[in-house]
Amino acid sequence: MKIKAIVPVLALLLLAGAQDLRAQDFEREHASYDFPAMVDGQEFIFTYQGTHDILEDLTPEITHVVFVQHGAAQNPVTYFDNAVAGLDAAAADRPELDLHRHVIVLSLAAIGESHVEDNPDRYANGHYPYWPGGWRGGQNSLNEPSVSNFDLMDVMALHLAEHAPNLESMVFVGHSAGGQVMSRYAVGTPITEDLEARGLSVRYIISNPSTFLYFDRRRPDFETGTGMVDFSGEPPVVDGEECPGFNEYHAGFEGDVPEYMARRPVQEMLDSFRDREVYVFQAAEDNDPEGGALARGCGAMLQGAHRLERGERYYEYLGSFFGEEVYGNMHLVIVPGVGHDHAGMFASEAGKQILFLDFFD
Asked: pTM surpassing 0.85?
């Protein structure tokens, strides 16, 4: 495998850490709603774009909620618009279900310091945590007091479970950098069993991330095209160079693991994750080894040459790690004719089904 000596400006992740795009690379998007979340006695305000104000508008008709995590551009409004377009398409397919009356879509905003600088009045009245990039893995926010965005997601989900009287199901979906969030959050969150004990079905959708979270030092065997190689002894070699940090967080559980992901023993988290409903949701055309924002560090290259291969091989790894029986609740779905495009994923036939329609049939 060849690793580029010069990484393009949009290559975000070098596996052991993130290279953040500067503020001028994107027009800042500011979500409309505030959600005050109490964590360890401190109030943090988490912003979101939504079909509903979840502090005031949780009607008895609501039965299903979709949490959407944006990508590297930290663009919750765009992700919200495209998730709602997927909902519109599903509703048009099945008008008898009256989906718009029963479904909430919430696009979660992990803001950066540049958001506050861009629109200080928006963030003047309260403590709004912001991240330099570590939100992909649940790291604590940059400003003090700090908090993990994963904590805030937990509090929001539990709020809905407690205050939406007829809620039946939740979906957590992230695409690209948001898919990186979901690959880690689906393993680390402790609230899934609490939600299920309340009678909710819970689903995690990991869509086209640049890298996945692995649980040991094995990685796909690219020599044979199948199976895993165990690097428990010598570190892997990529393009003639050793890659000693390939299993550091957030690709593995070594190195500097954030507080949220270190609160419980790894085995306890994996025992829970094994039984969760997880979709590895890949685009068939997201197969460009030179694709923009694709992580190309040596550790990332050990997961595959491009996002599609990384998703397929990670799904193989899940069966290898947990046993083939895990495929009863963990699924690989590949969308034909779509590239690295969250709008295309959400509005695809499979996207409409796993985001919305499955919960009404």
From this structure: yes
CATH of the structural domain 23-359, one choice from 3.40.50.1820, 3.40.980.10, 3.30.70.1560, 3.40.50.300: 3.40.50.1820
Contact 317, 253 (CB under 8 A): no
358 Cβ contact partners less than 8 Å away, ≥ 6 residues apart: none
Is 182:77 a contact under the CB 8 Å cutoff? no
With a cut of 70, list the residues of the chain below it in pLDDT. 1-26
What is the pLDDT, as a whole number, of residue 26? 64
pLDDT of residue 14: 33
Q: 348: phi > 0 → left, psi -120 to 50 → alpha, else beta; which?
A: beta
